[in-house]
Write a structure and sequence with these properties.
Helix content: 25-40%
Strand order of the largest sheet: 8-9-10-11-13-12
Distance between the termini: 75 Å
Strand content: 25-35%
Number of helices: 9
Structural class: alpha+beta
Number of strands: 13
Length: 303
């Protein structure tokens, strides 16, 4: 409530000697700054070693003095009010500590949503908190050793490695595009079927869906000038692009992909101008090209 506002109320909890789960009303996720501030305030109150005082009062009197009651909870004629040095005062059945310092320390492990307008905090305290620190410190040391940097330089080194990975991935993608539009395109076959130009290319070397589509787009523009049919098949994926003039003669990309994929044991479909599918048996890709050729001849020849 100090950090987030007076609208915060308790909606449920689990309290154990070494951990707690606390559900509360709040409309949005906590920021990292909120989490750090709440954890810091809890630990400041633990270090203050405030005495835990308890009193029996009527529920109305307790609430008038500032105790927080759990909404919807039924209370008897008397309730037990637990007060941690005036900082925290609530109606409570019991506590595991005589003073706040008995908790040793607390670590906020996570903050998450448990419903609309409801958040949950999970924390550990005492020995469990110490064990968590030891584990995290050990993992940090191991990571620092693997990266060959001091522990306090680990975040900077990880960020640099992530940037390098992104750069290398971009370079790899660009190299694949160049290979597909350059050397790969050289092996593309262009023929005429029923007066419609058909370009087909079989790609090996692990070309995936993105590479197959990139090859289709590149070959369609550069080799066919946007007029005809392009079929590109990798070892797992295939794609087809059909120009407007070919579509006007009944040649549709979705149908070509369907027959090509079926020839390899796969499935596929899509729009009349572009479609893709899967290749199951790569050794049958030549049969798939033949199936496409027959489908174009049947559609174009009958137009």
């Amino acid at each position: 409530r100090h950090r987030l506002g007076e609208h915060v109320t308790q909606k449920g909890s689990l309290v154990a000697p070494d951990r707690l789960r606390f559900d509360f009303s709040h409309p949005r996720p906590l920021t990292p700054q909120d989490v750090a501030a709440i954890e810091a305030e809890v630990n400041a109150q633990i270090r203050a070693n405030a005495e835990v005082r308890t009193r029996l009062q009527t529920p109305d009197h307790a609430v008038e003095e500032g105790a927080l009651a759990l909404f919807g909870e039924k209370y008897g004629e008397e309730v037990r009010v637990v007060d941690f040095g005036g900082w925290s005062r609530e109606l409570c059945g019991g506590t595991h500590a005589g003073r706040s310092g008995d908790l040793g320390a607390a670590i906020l492990l996570s903050e998450s949503s448990v419903g609309q307008g409801l958040r949950r905090i999970d924390m550990v305290a005492g020995d469990a908190a110490e064990l968590r620190w030891e584990r995290d410190a050990g993992l940090l040391r191991e990571t620092a050793t693997a990266l060959r940097v001091p522990p306090d330089e680990v975040p900077e080194r990880v960020a640099a490695l992530q940037a390098n990975i992104r750069r290398l991935q971009r370079d790899l993608d660009e190299a694949k595009r160049r290979a597909l539009s350059g050397g790969g395109a050289a092996s593309a076959v262009v023929e005429e079927v029923a007066g419609i130009r058909l370009l087909h290319l079989l790609l090996d070397g692990g070309a995936g869906r993105d590479e197959v589509k990139a090859a289709v787009d590149s070959l369609y523009a550069d080799r066919l000038g946007g007029d005809g049919v392009v079929v590109v098949m990798g070892e797992r994926d295939l794609a087809v692009k059909v120009s407007e003039s070919a579509r006007s003669r009944g040649v549709l990309a979705g149908e070509l992909v369907r027959v090509a994929a079926a020839a390899t044991g796969g499935k596929g479909g899509g729009r009349p101008d572009f479609a893709n599918g899967g290749v199951v048996d790569a050794s049958r890709r030549e049969q798939a090209v033949a199936a496409v050729r027959e489908a174009i001849a049947a559609a174009g020849g009958g137009a």
